Amino acid sequence: MILKSGLRASAALVLLSLVTACAAPKGPSELIVLLPDSTGKVGTVIVSNGENKTVLNKALAAARVGEGPEQTQAVTLNQEEVDKTFAQALQAVPPEPVSFTLYFAKGSTDLLAKSKPAMRMVLLEVASRQVAEVQVTGHTDTVGRLKTNDDLALKRARAVAEMLKTRDLGTKRILTTGRGERELLVPTKDSVAEPLNRRVEIIVR
Question: Which CATH fold would you assign to the domain 98-204?
Fold first, then answer.
């Protein structure tokens, strides 16, 4: 099985959050391997079997866990061994989320020309995934009333969602929401026209 992002582990359970870990039985034991994330970073996994604890905090660090505390031991694997041992599990790992930011003209749902290449990248990313969930969140600057900006932010999100829906991308789940001026990318005072705050943020999972 594939486990993601690790802090602590026992022979029966691994809790994960920062990195990717793989575990697979081998004979009477279980093999746990710590993998780096897409940026090369790793967290820490503590494999605990009774009072016996093994700390994994380097890429490809591994532990083989047996039925008794004395049967837990640190092992060393290379990338070739990991790829071979966990080939099937690794193929089943879904792609990591990818985020994009699109910018809009003042007071409108018109996408700026400089953001059109990013929109094309969004379409390619969504199309490349067999099962994709797309979170689209609209934002505004602080010009205008709060309610007006809430409405505009949602309209921007829905405009992007409509661009996605009009393409032949198969059945994809698209979620839209508007945050108005509540989550400014560039903090400003009220009534400040800040282009970087007039945006839609997209997360493709």
Answer: 60s Ribosomal Protein L30; Chain: A; (3.30.1330)
Q: Name which of 14-18, 83-87, 181-185 the model is least confident about.
A: 14-18
Tokens 């061994």 correspond to 81
Q: Mark 46-66 as b/e (b = at least 16 C-beta within 10 Å).
A: bbbbeebebebeebbbbbbbb
Task: For 29-58, write each residue's pLDDT tens digit.
Answer: 677 888 777 677 777 878 777 777 888 888
Domain residue ranges of the chain, discontinuous segments joined by +: 2-91, 98-204
Average pLDDT (66-72) is 65
pTM for this prediction: 0.63
Beta strands across the sheet bearing 98-103: 98-103, 199-204, 133-138, 173-178
Two tokens, residue 76: 């060393």
